[in-house]
Amino acid sequence: MAERAALEELVRLQGERVRGLKQQKASAEQIEEEVAKLLKLKAQLGPDEGKQKFVLKTPKETLTGKYGEDSKLIYDLKDQGGELLSLRYDLTVPFARYLAMNKLTNIKRYHIAKVYRRDNPAMTRGRYREFYQCDFDIAGQFDPMIPDAECLKIMCEILSSLQIGDFLVKVNDRRILDGMFAICGVPDSKFRTICSSVDKLDKVSWEEVKNEMVGEKGLAPKVADRIGDYVQQHGGVSLVEQLLQDPELSQNKQALEGLGDLKILFEYLTLFGIADKISFDLSLARGLDYYTGVIYEAVLLQTPVRAGEEPLGVGSVAAGGRYDGLVGMFDPKGRKVPCVGLSIGVERIFSIVEQRLEALEEKVRTTETQVLVASAQKKLLEERLRLVSELWDAGIKAELLYKKNPKLLNQLQYCEEAGIPLVVIIGEQELKDGVIKLRSVASREEVDVRREDLVEEIKRRTSQPFCIC
Prior knowledge:
Blueprint: H1 2-23, H2 28-43, H3 59-63, E1 76-78, E2 84-86, H4 92-101, E3 107-116, E4 130-139, H5 146-162, E5 167-173, H6 174-184, H7 191-198, H8 206-216, H9 221-231, E6 234-235, H10 237-244, H11 253-271, E7 278-281, E8 294-300, E9 316-322, E10 339-345, H12 346-359, E11 371-375, H13 381-393, E12 398-399, H14 408-418, E13 422-426, H15 428-433, E14 435-440, E15 446-450, H16 454-462
Parallel strand pairs: 5-7, 11-12, 11-13
Antiparallel strand pairs: 1-2, 3-4, 4-10, 5-8, 6-7, 8-9, 9-10, 13-14, 14-15
Helix pairs in contact: 1-2, 5-11, 6-11, 8-9, 10-11
């Protein structure tokens, strides 16, 4: 026991030494040397006490080298000791690190949280520096393309249920891109940077992308032209079949593997009933370095809300792909866990909703309240309190104005301003007749409902399919 206590004390002291070196801005080599000593000491404690109980590497080190050219969008900070830190860029890298730290090899999860980008904000296009992302991921060793197809199915279900307009999901595969770059003559060292250029094709013309490849990244014009012949193609499974017969691409092992998986993927997407929403697009590159296989991105088909109006444009609203090597970057032994997932930009969805409602001159709802309990005459506070309590007990989101004798007009105006869809109006005559007046705020239609049927009628009206159009 004394020997173990002494060892635990050594671990504590060595941990303090590591933290002290970080605060003193010691060299990376010196810190790594002391961290290695700490790990050896912890290993001597045995499997139970030797688990990672605190972070040995800084968040900055966690993020660096995972995003490629997008790393320039990471927010860098310094703490009071001068240690370099970063704000979370996405939810994928922290998830991969969590899997490695906890030695998890099989999990399905979703996560909604804030992320940060050092980007140029564009409020009308849903681009912010601080925003929420909703992620869904499947980690584990499974047969090819089954989890990938499920992710695409979930993406389509979410976007369809939101009813924000027609959308298209572009799919590609990093292995196809790498194979394409190889046969076109792109040097291995330029694969990722050229990939980043190709990824801009949804925002700028091919000529602009080509100029960047040649002028800024030193690619030969002939090589860029060959890339252009491929990346301007898009279609369905027929394009996959066509490329499988391509005399050059079909000879590249990576590209052949990617095309084979895409063919399987389209079979599963057909079974899921979403193949008509999917397009195989060779220009889709996804600039993040950690993708290793299938990649995808959902874009709205830019249709105007009304004839003659400009279409709403916010870029992609959801994206994702396969990242089989990311977990291994955090595992001390480099053990890989295959992963695939998707990410939905919550603020971008909100931007679309707001623009559509503004274009239709409709009000954005600022409350979840479903019904306001109102009165038409004075001295009905007790009845309002009794009824609102009954609605609460039934699970209905209801409220009332905190006044004894509010004017009916003020109560109706409050509903219009807050976006409350229904009003129940209590009146002396209605109380005698055993009925309650139920009013639709939007249409101003009123119906008398028997008191005992009111809860069911409100639930029926508020259970209509969700629509934000």
